[in-house]
Amino acid sequence: MKAPLSQYPGMNPFVLDWLAGDERFLPRGPARSSQLAARSDELAHALDQSNRHWGIFAKDAIQQWARGETRTIIAGQQVGFAGGPLYTLAKIASIVKMKRELEKAGTPATALFWLATEDHDFAEVATLHVPAHLTKSQDSQLDLLCIRATHGVESRAVVGSLPVPEPLIAQLLTLFDIPRPSWLREGITFRDSFAELIASLFGNEVILVDALLPELRRAGAPLFGAIDSNRDAIHQALRQRGQELAQAGYKEQVIPNERGEYTLLYELDEHGHRQTPTPNRTPERTSTSALTRPLLQDFVLRPDVFVGGPAEVAYYAQIAPLHELLGIPMPRIALRGHVLVAPKRVVRAMDRFEIQPAEVFAAADALIAEREPENVARIREIIDEGKRELMQRVAQVGELALPADHSLAGSIQRSIGHLEFHFNKLGERAIKGLIRKDRERFSAIREVVATLYPDRHVQDRTVSWFAYWHTYGAGITEQILEEVEPDSAFFKLAVL
């Protein structure tokens, strides 16, 4: 089952046009054919050591990549608790599938996944949504449960090196009634917890890159210097690109401040808090913004293909002029595959009641009402006719009574409002009663909507993939790998 991304709620309009062939702001050509880039031995050694720490033993693959003997495909994401939402898994599956396809065609390839450990959005990283029916919860089985932890005070500390809060771990273990896994051991950081969980799924197929790795930051020192030296030119280029995007009807992903300037770099203090950068900061203490993170990635790692979500693709459209300005080769940009997942019974219900994937992005009542067009339309017609006739009678009462008592005007208006309200409520109740006459169909469609569009959020943006992995096992990974279509204008449904 698949449907066009144009039917996927909230899809970035720039990305839709870009997928359709509009390359004014971002090329869609194949990966560049220049010579493969070599990387430093220091960086390769650091990657090997950090990946070994997480259970990924890929020294030979890392060295081959460092020598410039493979094509490089990269994606990245925040180090979300318990792996984050489903689209994180879809991103990793996208780069693994592209790697496998290249190798099948005889081209050695390396899949890198950038751990955005310098992100400081604690609330987003420490929040997880899980379907109640996949847990031991006594809540309604159609509910979407929220697991979260909060800081006592607002903080701008980078989250990757923070320990996962014990109450957050306790909530997850209780909901799923599972023993404590090693990737949630006491004192473990968000970075290590995320990395060890991903390693348990993909083994040595994906090499993880810690954004705060000191060797990576040192390799980026020339870029940081170039950003500082070309600050005015960078702001001018970004302002011009922002105007061009606006003229084309698009929005900038990052907007300038009141002075017309964009945030480019931060400095981390000894506690990991982001501060305004100082001239004498070290590379290890330099932190990138949303606009300069892709530049650091492309400068140091020299990927051939970057796989990103819709927002990340739009970021590249905004910063594309900076690649040329700073002399950084731009990788080919590809959109991550969009995959939703559903148990077999949900898919059978979709087939039985002829529900297309895009149709689930509506309330269950509305979806069922579309399958009762004649009777629903007739009820609405009767209600409308009744309101018109009643309003005519009220108007006649007013014509007779108002000359005798002008104070009745307010009462008549209030009565009209009450009558309209109750007529509308009567119509709503009648339609819902009509809808609910087929209980089996209503229950099935409610489950379809609750699975794929819970709380009016598209499943892959919100719902935990861990919850499905816990219930359906490791096969979910291969199922998503089979269905995912990177750089496609469609979203697909994987059957569990």
Structure description:
- The chain has 496 residues and is of the alpha/beta class.
- The protein has two domains: 307 residues, 3-Layer(aba) Sandwich (Rossmann fold), CATH 3.40.50.620; 85 residues, no CATH class.
- Helix content is 48%, strand content 12%.
- It has 20 helices and 13 strands.
- The strands form four sheets. It has a five-stranded parallel beta sheet. Strands 1-13-12 form a three-stranded mixed beta sheet, sandwiched between helices. Strands 8-7-9 form a three-stranded antiparallel beta sheet, with no helix packed on it.
- A hairpin with a 5-residue loop joins strand 7 and strand 8.
- It is globular and about 95 Å long.
- The model has no long low-confidence stretch (mean pLDDT 89).
- Average residue pLDDT: 89
Number of domains: 2
Whole-Å distance between the termini? Answer: 13 Å
What is the alpha-carbon Rg in Å?
27 Å
Trace the largest sheet across and list its strands.
6-3-2-10-11
CATH architecture descriptor name of the largest domain: 3-Layer(aba) Sandwich
Major sheet, described briefly? 5 strands, parallel
CATH class of the largest domain: Alpha Beta
- In DSSP terms (H or I, runs of 4 or more residues), the helix count works out at 20
Low-confidence stretches: none
How many individual β-strands? 13
Structure classification = alpha/beta
